[in-house]
Amino acid sequence: MQRMRIGPEERVFVLTGAGVSAESGLRTFRDQGGLWEGHRVEEVATPEAWTEDAARVWRFYSQRRRDARRAEPNAAHRALAELEQRLDDRFFLCTQNVDDLHERAGSRRLVHMHGELFASRCEFSGPGAGTSACASAPFPDDALYETEEVIAHCTCGGRIRPHIVWFGEMPLEMERIEREIARATTMLVVGTSGAVYPAASFVHWAGPRARRIYIGPEEPANAAAFTEIVPGRAGEVLPGLVEGA
Ligand SMILES: [Zn+2]
Asked: How far apart are CA 48 and CA 27, in angstroms?
């Protein structure tokens, strides 16, 4: 496939995953057999880890913030931002990535279904916080918290936690995502394994007449659900694919 044609009535839904961030040098648990610089997922990215040792969790996410600050958007991020410029509100981006590289490339119509690295919130707020939940909202935050003493507190007394969807927590903005998928005529899935749910289901939620295109160096686990598979790195394939779309 050389180039994607988007008609004037068409709507594009894009899902991006870890492969897109990896091309900017940001790694994930999956890249490294479940270990990230010696940490297991259960030690740093679960509600249980937070209860057990909040400072350890924050040291991990503080390092992720440092890494993300140094990273730069790549050609895939830029190609998607340019496509959004052309399609405006007929474009929607859902990312599984928590870094801000899509925003820094210029994307605006996007949701971070797994949360945002550069936002924090009260530990008693947000989805799954329970009946005594705090009503405070997530806020932009690029601070580094390396010890228990420096972890900021909410006015309710709760500690400030990363605005990240940990393993075992509910993804964010699912109603909006479902709505956008239902009206999309083209779905582009980029650099994601097709093995993490619910994101791996999105291609099945698209209407049967929607084009469903996968882009990535490896065939995804859910390859059979796509109408087209474009092998290759996102940064190499996407710019040509969406040029003049
Ligand atoms: Zn609070």
From this structure: 23
Same domain, 106 and 150: no
Give the end-to-end CA distance of the chain in Å, rounded to a whole number: 13
Q: How far is ligand 1, taken at its centre, from the CA of residue 153, in Å? A: 8
Show the low-confidence residues of the chain (pLDDT under 50). none
Burial of 115-128, coded b for 16+ CB within 10 Å and e otherwise, reads bbbbbbbbbbbbee
Backbone angles phi, psi at 158, to 5 degrees: -65, 155
If 0-12 CB within 10 Å is exposed, 13-18 middle and 19+ buried, where does residue 138 land?
middle
Q: Report yes or no: 154 and 183 within 8 Å, Cβ to Cβ.
A: no
CB 115 within 8 A of CB 99: no
13 contacts 206 by C-beta, under 8 angstroms: yes
Active site residue 114: yes
- Domain assignment of residue 143, given as a range: 27-70+122-164
Q: Say if residue 91 is in the same domain as residue 197.
A: yes
Same domain? For 62 and 140 the reply is yes
Query: What is the 158 CA–ligand 1 centroid distance (Å)?
Result: 5
Which residue out of 39, 114, 153, 204 is catalytically annotated? 114
Q: How far is the CA of 90 from the centre of ligand 1 (A)?
A: 37
Look up residue 91 and give its two tokens.
Answer: 């474009």
C-alpha of residue 152 to centroid of ligand 1, in Å: 11
Same domain, yes or no, for 190 and 244? yes
Cis peptide leading into residue 198 (ω within 30°): yes
